[in-house]
Amino acid sequence: MGQSSGIGVLDKSVQVLRAAAAAPSGLAELCAATGLPRATAHRLAVGLEIHGMLERDGQGRWRPGPLLQSLAAGSPDPLVLAAAEVLPRLRDRTGESVQLYRPDGLVRVCVATAEPSSGLRDTVPLGTRLPMTAGSGAKVLLAWAPPATVRAVLPDASFTERALAEVRRRGWAQSVAEREAGVASVSAPVRDPAGTVVAAVSVSGPVERIGRRPGERWAGDLLDAAAALTARL
């Protein structure tokens, strides 16, 4: 368990971090490793996930998150630093939830978010790993992905190669109830200085509020935000 700092919640949070660092852990494993009650372990793990200190793998188990990885590397992640400036402005302009996704093999990882302070949200916790088979962010990342990745994903995707060609043509993607019922989104690609697509910036929210053609409302704002992120890289 390690030494006690005298600050109960801090010591318990470190216990959870140590357990997830030792091995990817579901709630039962966290409780067994830490001796914490289920409600306490879950609350702390979710809080650490929101701050990027933990993330979940494809099986929903907690493991060290992007913030810990960035700190351990000894240098800040330039994409995450850029997002801290750009995403809040996009959120304020649209009034909706904003996410930044980075590709990781056959999944995408939420590496930054900006949520409105009130109202119904489409909350995607920091560190969430989503499949590349549905959603506007997946379409954007797959549209410029290596051919081997495209071939691996398309058989199970809710869209086609023709849809990806359309994304490349117009420079953005939209989706309605693909990833989650009742949720619509629009996304645009973020490029590094060499022009390679390294992330997708997204705005998402309830279909009844942002409509079934969110690209008509937000594509311009998304492209501006993507350009701002690219410039900061």
Automatic annotation (TrEMBL):
| UniProt-recorded name of the protein | Transcriptional regulator, IclR family protein
State the UniProt keywords alphabetically.
DNA-binding, Transcription, Transcription regulation
Organism equals Nakamurella endophytica
Q: Which residues form the IclR-ED domain?
A: 67-233
Spell out the molecular function terms from Gene Ontology: DNA binding; DNA-binding transcription factor activity
What is any Pfam family matched here?
IclR_C
Indicate yes or no for the key word Ribosomal protein.
no
Single GO BP term: negative regulation of DNA-templated transcription
User: Locate the HTH iclR-type domain: which residues?
Assistant: 7-66
Record keyword S-adenosyl-L-methionine present? no
